[in-house]
Amino acid sequence: MKPRAISGAGLGFRRELIPDLKRGVPADIDFFEIAPENWLGIGGASAKDLRAFTERHPFACHGLSLSLGGPAPLDEALLRRIRGFMREHGMTLYTEHLSWCGDDGQLYDLLPIPFTEEAVRWTAERVRRAQDLLGMRIGLENASYYVAPPGAEMNEIEFIRAVIEEADCLLHLDVNNIYVNSINHGFDPSAFLRELPLARTCYLHVAGHYVEADGLVVDTHGAPVIDPVWALLEEAYALCGPLPTCLERDFNIPALDTLATEVGVIADIQRRVAGTDFLQAAS
Ligand SMILES: [Fe+2]
Description:
Blueprint: E1 9-12, H1 18-22, E2 31-34, H2 44-56, E3 59-62, H3 76-88, E4 94-97, H4 117-134, E5 139-141, H5 156-167, E6 170-174, H6 175-185, H7 189-195, E7 201-207, E8 210-211, E9 217-218, H8 227-240, E10 245-248, H9 256-273
Parallel strand pairs: 1-2, 1-10, 2-3, 3-4, 4-5, 5-6, 6-7, 7-10
Antiparallel strand pairs: 8-9
Helix pairs in contact: 4-5, 7-8, 8-9
Bound molecules: fe (ii) ion.
């Protein structure tokens, strides 16, 4: 399929939304995001459905299980399958988490990488290999974490900057993850944002989260986005421009109309900042 770039505001593509999406894609949804691991090798009606949507709408590819910082050998067979999947559906952007998911490869169990020089070299080399296999630069997403990894030789910002520079890859900026970490680890989210290599940003995520009784904020993607996170998104746009941004919603999924309204907020903020000068913070 002809390659298609994404822009504007997007929504995660989920099987349970397909019946409603078939009745019409809301106007504020400019693109969809898809987790390749959930769709590789599918056939039948699901494959037809996906094809029908990728023919009409741009899609971003957001991986779940590559475990770029993990100890297990890089899954090159998976990367080759992802390359084929992206070509088949005209996808031009691939991002993954700057984290790892354990030796058993369990999905969604994303763990922080120790902030060490050795981990920078290890992860950056794997990112470079992934980029070679995919034939494109990929975006690395800043992670949320609840217990700081032991043995740190640098802080999280230094770690992110070092990996991205050494791998010569792009930044996938998740503003909710910054907010969640800022509450759990007690730092200023705006200051953190400004220290990131924002000139390398290719893509953004925004999401809701859950606050436990003891105040711990958990990155559930199961609630509406809160105002401080919207404000952080607007701040990010002021620095790097209104780049394509996806609303993540993985649990307590509301009706499509409700999701579209939230995607519309992304679009509203993008329109508000469009035409202004962006700081383009130096990386
Ligand atoms: Fe995210």
